[in-house]
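Human:
Class, as today's exercise, you are to examine the entry below, and be ready to discuss the fold:
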Amino acid sequence: MTWPEVVEWLNRAAAVIVYTGREEAQLRARGFDKHIYIIPPGVGPEFCGSFYGPRAGVITVEARAGAKGGSRVKAACDELAIPCKVLTGLTKKELIVEYQKARLFVCASEYDTFNLTVLEALACGCRV
């Protein structure tokens, strides 16, 4: 894709998450005009506190228990006292409801880092 195509697609999003101010500057210089969240790698518990609000808690989805790191997500949330659900075996309708209730979706897979569940969560307005 060319930069104009990238910016065109990104401008369809409500917001974009980047890791550095440099990345934000690159997008702004190329015409991206929506909100950008800068979330540095290795954020701590203070960042997670901002996830409380009308939507609450964290969810992650696994096709089968233990398949995509859900237990690691649950352990981290338990340590931070953040509500968390590891979802397995739900129908599409049930998943939509859970995505719409959750404040954050975490994809903890070590091998499948941008999969359909990420897109489903984004489509339901859930942070990823």
Summary: The helical segments are 3-10, 21-29, 45-48, 70-80, 92-101, 116-123. Strands lie at 15-18, 35-38, 58-62, 84-88, 104-105. Residues 71 and 80 are 14 Å apart (CA to CA). DSSP finds six helices and five strands in the chain.
